[in-house]
Specification:
The protein is mostly helical and 85 residues long. It has a single domain, classed as lambda repressor-like DNA-binding domains (434 Repressor (Amino-terminal Domain)). It has 6 helices and no strands. Helix 1 packs parallel to helix 6 and helix 2 (27-34) packs across helix 3 (38-45).
Length: 85
């Protein structure tokens, strides 16, 4: 069953949040690295803001994951994949 665009956006946002939490990074830290406010970053994780491909790649680099993993994977798989890092 194919996900709707909105469901996929929420899934990507959840993946970002789970990996951020696994890395023990705060929203403030990611916001600072991205050059945006913590409030703006929070909206990314809540899927209130649609992010650009450039922003997705930036977040993936900070989180030390492949941007494709953030799109395709589910959060539990991502954490499991990166526990050996």
């Amino acid at each position: 069953m194919e996900q709707t665009i909105e469901a996929k956006i929420r899934s990507v946002a959840l993946n970002i949040r789970k990996i951020r939490e696994y890395r023990d990074y705060t929203q403030e830290y990611l916001a600072m690295k991205l050059g945006i406010s913590q409030n703006a970053y929070s909206k990314i994780e809540l899927a209130y803001t649609r992010i650009t491909l450039e922003r997705l790649i930036q977040i993936a680099q900070i989180l030390e994951v492949d941007s494709v993993d953030l799109i395709k994977g589910n959060s539990e798989e991502l954490v499991r994949l990166h526990t050996s890092d």
